[in-house]
Amino acid sequence: MKVKCPECSEQIEVDKNEVDENDTVECPECGQESTVKIKNGKIKLASQKEKYFEEGIGDYSDE
Fold first, then answer.
1. For a designed S-S bond to 2, which of 11, 20, 49, 54 qualifies (C-beta 3.0 to 4.6 A apart)?
2. With b meaning 16 or more CB within 10 Å and e meaning fewer, what string describes 20-41?
3. Longest C-alpha distance within the chain, in Å?
4. What is the pLDDT of residues 27-55, one digit of tens each?
């Protein structure tokens, strides 16, 4: 399965049977490390900035 690098938009081949949620994949074109996100069986790569934001958003909640 091919997924798009969030940094340079290069198509990266990822074996969906070999990656799990929050694994790290490196883009062969730009060298950016991205985090694997899986939702409804679809794989998406999130940049390290996006991963940091998603993890930290609960820390700023007023609840």
1. 11
2. eeeeebebeeeebebbbbeeee
3. 42
4. 999 999 999 999 888 899 998 766 555 55
Count of domains observed in the chain: 1
E-assigned strand segments in 1-63 = 2-4, 11-13, 24-26, 33-39, 42-47
**Boundaries of domain holding 23:** 2-60
In this structure, what token pair is assigned to residue 52?
């940091």
Which DSSP category does 56 fall into? H
Q: How far apart are CA 2 and CA 10, in angstroms?
A: 10
* Alpha-helix residue ranges (DSSP H) falling in 5-58: 48-56
What DSSP state is assigned to residue 31? -
Helix ranges (DSSP H) in 1-63 = 48-56
